[in-house]
Amino acid sequence: MKALKCACLNSKLHIIDIESTLLRALPGFEIVGLASVTIKESVTRVKSALAALHDFTLPAMKIIINLSPSDVKKDGSHFDLAIALLVLLQKERFDSDYFVFGELGLDGRLRSSAELFSVLLFLSTHVKSAKILLPKDIALRASMIPNFEVYAVENLAQARDFFLNDEFKISCKVDATHPIFDNVIEIAGRKFVPNLHFKLDFIDIKGQERAKRASIIAAAGMHNILFEGSPGCGKSMSAKRLPYIMPPQSLEEILLASAYESLNSNSSDFSAIRAFRSPHHTSTRSSIFGGGSSAAKIGEVALANGGVLFFDEFPYFGKQILESLREPLEDYKINISRVNSKVSYDTKFLFVAAMNPCPCGNAFSKNNVCTCSDKEIAKYKNVISGPILDRIDIYCAMGEINDGDVPSYSSKQMSAMVLNAFKNQIERGQSELNGKLCDFDIAKFCTLENAATEILSKAITNYHLSQRGINKILKVARTIADLRDAKSISKADIIESLSYRMKR
């Protein structure tokens, strides 16, 4: 029996072992192991490609190909090459420690399939390193995936020579590095890719110092934030600039972000800038959370994983959509169940919401008169429930821009502050940023000075804080302490953290 490795992507990635054997029986070619019609059709393509080799004759035996595990449905024309090679090399000794992908033409030429790059991206999130044989038309792009050793061939004959001729194998290797991996930084033995380009810059926002401070804290600890203010005060501008100052991504985060983007039928590329997703308030629930009539498709909350999910005009989103945010914001997972598939996606994003103080937007204005009644304002704000507000760490009220306001911090300066706080978190041994710490890690990493403990105790009594509210205050205070390189949380840190709490 001979074997090679491949992979398929349906509700999630599955690594498939392709096994072959030849039996003394009536000549035939059979594929078993829940293969789709696409894979079943590969028998014809494989036979034709083998016939195109002048020095090979199909054995007069029964060929059986098994796709293991047999209880997983497999699909994709990229299984062709591995199946053909197992027939072609049945009597040869070869290194089977390879993932082999490629669709065969009838003349033996190789090409990539539409979903192959998505499969490779998800494979890169499952294995630390892998040796991969691919068609030449996708090899250069695949070689930019950091943990892959990629080899390229143009046809079935070259693929056979690859396994039998060591010198030819060396000539098939493809080496390429994506430009963003040229500037990797190392923190506590882990590699991260910082953003060095600031297409959108906080220097464009005049004044709003409190909002900028809140943005630094939110970015440094991945804390959910709500901006409230009059139209034109800079809420959306601040939200759109947050991805540029957020902490650097690990290699794993970049690969997963690109893999998720590939599921959205987009041409994915590696980026040092974290994802930014901003669905319109008229978007459907399935487009935001994922869904579909039969297959489970990815939604905005999963595409925002590792980056920013921005809800502008927050109260205008449907009640059902807002309440459905609870689980992704709390559990950092979204589970989608459909008739033919069940899939789970990570949702560790920084949630940013922006809203006006009232329907007309002038409640905070010193120059314009608010025309809204108390009833209209209450109706406008009551769409956002207490449990949703409980999941927002930072509330920032923004005033109008004044003539005397001037630019202050640039995104580059803010990014440096965030990076310093990020280093403190990683070097402390945290696996998650402060905003995503679990209860156990909060107790471990959020150590308070005596004066800070007293202030927090008074706040719990005066504000009737829930346990979730207490944890939010501690996590924000931990980030504030990290921004000033402090090992423990001080009284001033708790007070500033309390100042970002929304009063209801």
From TrEMBL:
InterPro entries: CHLI-like, Mg_chelat-rel, Mg_chelat-rel_C, Mg_chelatse_chII-like_cat_dom, P-loop_NTPase, Ribosomal_Su5_D2-typ_SF, Ribsml_uS5_D2-typ_fold_subgr
A GO term for molecular function: ATP binding
Transmembrane regions: none
SUPFAM superfamilies in the record: P-loop containing nucleoside triphosphate hydrolases, Ribosomal protein S5 domain 2-like
Pfam families in alphabetical order: ChlI, Mg_chelatase, Mg_chelatase_C
Protein name: Mg chelatase-related protein
Biological classification of the source: Bacteria, Pseudomonadati, Campylobacterota, Epsilonproteobacteria, Campylobacterales
